[in-house]
Every structure is written in C-alpha cells, then in structure tokens.
Amino acid sequence: MHNCFHPLQYKGSLPSGLNNPFDYDPDEVSLLACKDLQASLPSANVEGKMYGVLVVEKEGELGYLAAYSGQIADNNGAFVPAVFDYLQPDGYFKQHEQEISQINAKIKAIETQRNFIKAKDTLIKAQQEADKAIEEQKQAMKISKALRDQVRKAGYVTIDDERALIKESQFLKAELHRKKLYYRDKIAAIQQVVNSYQEEIRLLQCERKLKSDRLQAWLFSQFKFTNYKGEKKDLCAIFRDYYINEGENTDKKDRSYRQQPPSGAGECCEPKLLQYAFTQGYKPIAMAMFWWGASPNQEIRQHGQFYPACNGKCKPILSWMLGNLLEEKYKIKELPNEEIHRHRQDVSTEISILFEDNYLAVIDKPAGLLSVPGKKLAASVYALLKQKWQGRCEPYMVHRLDMDTSGLMVVAKQAHVYHDLQQQFINRTVNKRYTAFLPLSLLDKNLPPKGKIILPLTADLFDRPRQKVDKEVGKIAITTYEIVGKTHYGERLKQQAVRVLLYPHTGRTHQLRVHCAHSEGLGTPIIGDNLYGNKANRLHLYADRLRFVHPITHKEMTFSLQSSIK
Q1: Which residue blocks in 6-113 are alpha helix, DSSP H?
Q2: Would you say residue 343 lies in a domain?
Q3: pLDDT score for 463
Q4: Are 195 and 115 part of one and the same domain?
C-alpha cells in the first residue's frame, strides 16, 4: 500500500498553472516540497539518483508526491509506485530475464572453455609461424637471387651452370608455394575448430537478441499511461505517434534512433508523478526534479541541482500526458519547443566588428546569439552579417561558438579565404584561448595550476543538447588549462570567482564546459552553465584570444578581448 501523499503547510500564493517540466525555475512551494523530501534522503556521498516532487491538491488539501528515477525493489511507500513494476521475483519479466541470463551463462561457458581458448591460441601461433616461415623463405630467395646475379655478372657461366641456376630459382619458388599450401591447410584446419565454437556463440547471441527484443517489446506494452483527459495509451504507441506527428520538427538522427522507446523510458520521475496524480484524482500544481548524491561517470550531475525533464525518454511521454491544450481541470502551460535547455536572454542585433577588410572580418559575438541560424531561431551571426553586408559578399562561417559563449570569431568573405582558414583550423595552427570564471570552490580541490584534460565526448542521445563523457565511443577531446587565481566579475565587479584560461586542442561540442564540470576534469562547472552547473545571468565563458595567419597577406594576426571580460 502506497501512502505517497505528503501534506504541506504553505501559506503563500500557488502557481496559476503547472510549470513547464522542460524549462523552469522551481517556485516557492516546489522548493518547500523538495526541502521536506531532502531531509529524509541519505547523505550526498551515496550513489546519485534523480528525485522529483509534484505539488498537488485534492479536496482542498495541499501536499506533494515524491518519485525517484528508475526502479528499486524496496520502495517503502513514501514514493509513488512504478507505472509498471517488473521487479516481482515470480513475474513474467523476471522469468524471461532469467532465460536471457542462462543464455549469457552458456556463452560465457563456451568462451572460457579450455579447448576453445587453446584452439584460438594455436590459431594465432600457426598464423605467426606461417608469416615467419614464408618471410624467411622470401628472404632466402632474395639472397639466392643476388648470388645468382653475381655469378652471371662474373662471366664464364656455362650452359649447365645456367640450367643449374634456373633450377635453383624454380626449386626455391616451388618451396615457397609448398610452404604456403602447407600453412594454408594447417591454419584452415585450426580455423574450422575455432569457427565451430564461434558459430555456437553466434547462434546463442541471435537467440538472446530475439528473446531480449521480444521481452523489451512486451515490457513497453505493459507501461500504460493515463493523460490529463483520462485517456490511456501504452509506451510503444506513445513513441510511435509522437515521431509520426513530430517528424518534420524532429532531428533525423532522433527519428532513426528511436523508432522504439529507449530503454528506461517511463521510469523517470515526471511521468511516474503525473501518472499517479492523474489516476488518483490529484490536481497537479507544480513540479521539480533534483539530483541527489554523486555524479555518474558519463553524464554530469551536480548534487542538489534542479534539472529539466530529458528529451529522449520524457518528451514523447509528457507531450501526450499533458497535451498542447489548456484543460479547465488542469491549467497546463504550453509545452516547450526545441530551445528548452538554453538560457534565454535579450541579444543585441549589433555585432561588434574588430577588424574587417575585403577578405575577412573578426567579430565579438555576444552571448545568447547563435553562430548560424537554428531550426526556429533565425537571429545569428550569419544572418546579421549577411544583412549588414547587403549582398556585397557572403558570410562564410569558418568556425562556431556555442550560443551561450561570447567572444572572438573570424568570418570569411570569399570562398577561397574560407577554405584557407578552415584548413588552418583542421591543421590546428589557429591559436584559441578562452577565459572562464569558476566558483571559488575550485581552489579547494588542490589541482595543479596547469594541466591537460583528456576526456572523450559524445552527444547524450536521450538529453540533447547535453554532451557526456564516453570512453568507448566518444571522440577524443583535449583541453589545456591554467588556473590564474581569484578575480572580480559581474555588475560593478562585486562578485568573486577564479579566472581559468582554457586552450582547446580539439573542437568538440561543449568541450570546455564538460571538461570544467566533469569530476575527472576540473570538477567545477563554469559559472552560469545552465546545462552542467547552475544558472546565472549568463555563461561566463569568453573566447578572448584568437591568432591565425591572414590567407592573403600571410601575416600573423592576433586579437584579444581581455578588457571587455567582466
């Protein structure tokens, strides 16, 4: 029996409608509910998990529901139940999961079988032996040929001598051919033994995949959600309909990757909270999700920090559960667009041009402005320069800065200039430096004042535009850093921070932001990093120095923005 409703004593005014789960700042009543929940959670040193609260009202009583992401076997009733509990020991899922585990055990038994290991070792040795024997024979043939050539050059070679030399050459060639045949047959015999074991493994892997796919499809069909109208739909139908309806507005990679729901869909806090509220007659008022505990190895999460719902797993579900209409019973705000994760702010339509000639321009991009037009946001460096130059030349975007990053960019005016500059970036001969302001807590970590961060990065497919560290499939990303020391920043320079110089040697998306925030990097997010740290008036990351060779004059050009960084 779940006693999920936690009464709240709150005398302030309540929100007029449910906040947007993809883009929000927690209001007072949500913060009160989170504080109450956090008091019952373990210390920050435990394995991290996402928790969430949904402030609700029923029959005039105010309270909140609590949830955690994922499933655990010992839910004590203080949290809302899973939409579908598949952890029952004697349930369908566990029984069929055991079948898959048994296949895994069979595969492991074959892989560790002594005869299989011996056959693989024998195969490797036979291949090495063959390579060595054939190479030795080829070398012997070269030496023999050189000797024969010397004999012929010396003269006085009789007909019988020439025949002997030819016979020797033919014998050595035949010997090479015999060795190749011998080792071919020897290796083929051993390979046949290895193949027999590998075929067993392959068949078991096919069986495992078939069972796993069927079990996953069955599991998704058991996740039946209820929306604000009381309508019901399972997970497969929700995702299918979402990507059919949103096809034109969805990234092609997302559509191809998620024809089926991703693993773990339906187990995040938001759908669990709304499911319980809609099925039990609670009126949703406000919701908030926060991370509690240590950060995972790949994604970056900060203890106690609030986070929006993820795109990959939650957006299709919540889009259907909440709908895009205002319903009298639940005054739900409009659902988010593609810019849900970005910090919005007013952007000046004026771009400061620091240098310009007939071939290129160097500009100071303001924070909050795209480098190139987005799907819905047209305002960008490209668009503004195109308008400014009024057809006299075309802006060729040599490189980009993140929307939230400000600073130096070089833009070509002609195609051949663009290609030259682009090649300089490819060859990594362009010198780029960034200045970042990090919290004073960085100094408590006792990091070396200078160092190098090497953490491979890849897109977080379930939570774009976030990036994550992935040491298996991530692309190499290298950053050199230098901790300068304390500095003042902000309005009237009243706030303190640590100034850090960053030198990217690769150009991965969000590279500097992730390398600063990740525990294996500096372990401290840049101030104002709403994706990997905490929100502020802006992201305090500045592309403050740029050095390159002018493609036409061949002179080295250096630009700096130190005086404007505050």
Answers
A1: 28-38, 92-111
A2: no
A3: 87
A4: yes
Let me know if 543 is exposed, middle or buried by CB neighbors in 10 A (0-12, 13-18, 19+). buried
> Which residues lie closer than 8 Å to 359 by C-beta, 6 or more apart?
412, 413, 414, 417, 550, 551, 552
Give residue 325's pLDDT: 42
548, containing H or E segment: strand 541-549
- What's the pTM? 0.75
The answer to whether residues 212 and 253 belong to one domain is no
Number of helices (H), then strands (E), in the chain = 11, 18
Judgement on whether residues 457 and 398 belong to the same structural domain of the protein:
yes
Report yes or no on 91 lying in a domain. no
* Overall size of the chain counted in residues: 566
CATH number at residue 508: 3.30.2350.10
Would residue 335 count as lying in a domain?
no
Looking at the structure, tell me whether residues 511 and 476 fall in a common domain. yes
In this structure, the answer to whether residues 488 and 441 fall within a common structural domain is yes
Range of the domain at 268: 6-84+233-322
Backbone φ, ψ for residue 41 (5° rounding): -90, 160
Beta-bridge partners for 183: none
Q: Tell me, yes or no, whether 442 lies in a domain.
A: yes
Catalytically annotated residues = 402
Q: Walk along the chain (566 residues) in steps of 10 and give the mean pLDDT of each run.
A: 82 89 92 95 82 94 94 76 89 94 97 96 97 96 94 88 92 96 97 97 97 93 93 94 74 56 92 96 95 90 91 91 57 44 47 94 93 78 92 93 94 97 94 96 94 96 90 95 92 88 94 96 94 89 97 96 65
